[in-house]
């Protein structure tokens, strides 16, 4: 006996075959048991009936013989499976017939059904004295001889059984095969995706709504999400390369100019200035990309309950000098005692980015408000700057999106993407209301019952 072989064999056999074999085996056993049981039951019933028939037929025959002596000439020695014989008083056969192997010379056993076995065959006989004569009638039947009905039953069972088995096995196999079809499709699609690296493929799902179609639907949803992040990743890589190309090209051409053509210190300084500006832009971009990637990959947030009112107040207090330097009037409406569950470092980045933008774009005033309703906590940062055109309101949340470079903001277009990412991580929503020339109001809406 070797286990590895056994293991290989069972692994190769499909689930469908295993299930089909399993239930076929049991149905077969049950059917065989039913046939055997019905055979024995029918045989017992037929035996009792045969015995009763032997007795009643013998009595009837004796009565007929008694009524009319002429009956002797018309005497039928075999009728309906029963043999009859007439004996004289000294046990000599006068006429009649006997089944094969029956010993005709057996002594009389009056009024009693007796069994006798000879040469492997069992007989039943019944002796009766014929009235008004010295003669005897002996009726004999072969025991355990299958009746016509029983034989028909067994024959039909023997024909029907394989037919029933055939339909059960083939029917069950086909049903199973059809039910397992989605698994085949799942396997084929997964294989195709692996081979072609094409995550846009989906499993064709029927509307049956059974367990396997549900599984296929879940896998499709998972594939859609993988596909989406795959595409996003690709787009992000493209964007990063594209965004870095400009400063790198400027740095290269400026350094080349400085190396080959700058005659005076002034010329050289100017080139260095350009290179320095572009390098700083690149540094900022790389930092923001890193931050964004970190936020995106943050599967485990360091969540804690924060006194958000105090948190925002503290941030504004720390930024006071920035507002003063730029002569910005800060108006605050912070409701006291608002608690929020969140990641403090990320929330600080969120507030920082929104405030930096407001400082960058405002005319002279910023209003920061924090309020709580039954379901939401709303943080709003409003400025009275140049505002954003309606058609731009959607796009500003996209990575690397900057509204026309003539604004000279030196931004890299990643700040609001980061704000949105952090908000999503906190199951919060971002909104912006803005009017060109009048200012913008950025809102982050947190849910209170998270
Ligand atoms: P950046 O880092 O370049 O500021 P952001 O993602 O933060 O990029 O912003 C995207 C664009 O949205 C900016 O280029 C800017 O034009 C616009 N924007 C953001 N905040 C404001 C604001 N408070 N007022 C006007 N425009 C804004």
UniProtKB/TrEMBL annotation:
Describe the location of the Histidine kinase domain by residue ranges.
239-450
EC number(s) of the enzyme?
A: 2.7.13.3
User: What keywords would UniProt list here?
Assistant: ATP-binding, Cell membrane, Kinase, Membrane, Nucleotide-binding, Phosphoprotein, Transferase, Transmembrane, Transmembrane helix, Two-component regulatory system
Q: What SUPFAM superfamilies does UniProt report for this protein, alphabetically?
A: ATPase domain of HSP90 chaperone/DNA topoisomerase II/histidine kinase (SSF55874), HAMP domain-like (SSF158472), Homodimeric domain of signal transducing histidine kinase (SSF47384)
Membrane topology per the entry is: Multi-pass membrane protein
**Keyword set includes Membrane:** yes
Q: For this protein, what reaction is catalysed?
A: ATP + protein L-histidine = ADP + protein N-phospho-L-histidine
Kindly list the places in or outside the cell where this protein is found, as annotated in its UniProt entry: Cell membrane
Family matches, as PROSITE patterns: HAMP, HIS_KIN
Outline the extent of the HAMP domain. Answer: 177-231
Which InterPro entries does the protein's record reference? HAMP_dom, HATPase_C_sf, HATPase_dom, His_kinase_dom, HisK_dim/P_dom, HisK_dim/P_sf, HssS/ArlS-like, Sig_transdc_His_kin-like_C
UniProt entry tagged with the keyword Phosphoprotein: yes
| Transmembrane segment boundaries | 21-41, 153-176
SMART domains from the UniProt entry: HAMP, HATPase_c, HisKA
The Gene Ontology terms for molecular function here are: kinase activity
Its EC top class is transferase
Descriptive protein name: histidine kinase
- Organism of origin is Streptococcus pacificus
């Amino acid at each position: 006996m070797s286990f590895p072989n056994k293991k290989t064999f069972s692994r190769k056999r499909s689930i469908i075959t295993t299930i089909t074999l399993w239930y076929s085996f049991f149905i077969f056993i049950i059917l065989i048991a039913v046939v055997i049981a019905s055979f024995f039951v029918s045989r017992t019933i037929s035996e009792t009936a045969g015995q009763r028939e032997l007795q009643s037929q013998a009595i009837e025959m004796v009565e007929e013989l008694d009524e009319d002596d002429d009956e002797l000439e018309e005497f039928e020695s075999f009728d309906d499976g029963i043999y009859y014989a007439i004996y004289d008083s000294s046990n000599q056969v006068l006429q009649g017939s006997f089944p094969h192997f029956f010993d005709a010379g057996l002594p009389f056993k009056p009024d009693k059904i007796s069994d006798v076995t000879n040469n492997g065959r069992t007989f039943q006989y019944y002796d009766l004295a014929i009235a008004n004569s010295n003669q005897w009638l002996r009726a004999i039947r072969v025991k355990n001889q299958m009746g016509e009905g029983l034989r028909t039953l067994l024959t039909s069972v023997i024909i029907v059984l394989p037919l029933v088995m055939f339909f059960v096995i083939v029917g069950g196999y086909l049903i199973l095969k059809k039910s397992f079809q989605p698994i085949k499709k799942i396997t084929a699609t997964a294989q195709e995706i692996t081979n072609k690296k094409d995550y846009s493929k989906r499993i064709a799902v029927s509307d049956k709504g059974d367990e396997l179609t549900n599984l296929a639907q879940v896998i499709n949803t998972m594939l859609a999400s993988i596909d989406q992040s795959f595409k996003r990743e690709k787009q992000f890589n493209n964007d990063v390369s594209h965004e870095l190309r400009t400063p790198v090209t400027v740095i290269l051409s400026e350094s080349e100019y400085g190396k080959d053509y700058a005659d005076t210190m002034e010329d050289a300084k100017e080139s260095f200035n350009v290179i320095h500006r572009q390098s700083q832009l690149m540094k900022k971009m790389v930092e923001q990309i890193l931050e964004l990637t970190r936020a995106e990959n943050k599967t485990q947030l360091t969540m804690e309950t924060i006194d958000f009112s105090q948190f925002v107040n503290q941030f504004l207090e720390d930024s006071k000098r920035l507002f003063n330097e730029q002569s910005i009037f800060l108006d605050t409406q912070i409701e006291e005692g608002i608690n929020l569950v969140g990641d403090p470092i990320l929330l600080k980045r969120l507030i920082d980015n929104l405030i930096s933008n407001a400082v960058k774009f405002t005319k002279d005033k910023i209003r920061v408000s924090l309020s709580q309703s039954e379901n939401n906590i709303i943080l709003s940062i409003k400025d009275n700057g140049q505002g954003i055109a309606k058609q731009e309101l959607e796009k500003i949340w996209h990575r690397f999106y900057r509204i026309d470079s003539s604004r000279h903001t030196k931004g890299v277009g990643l700040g609001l993407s980061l704000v949105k990412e952090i908000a999503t991580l906190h199951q919060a929503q971002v909104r912006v209301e803005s009017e060109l020339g009048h200012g913008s109001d950025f809102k982050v809406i947190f849910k209170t019952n998270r």
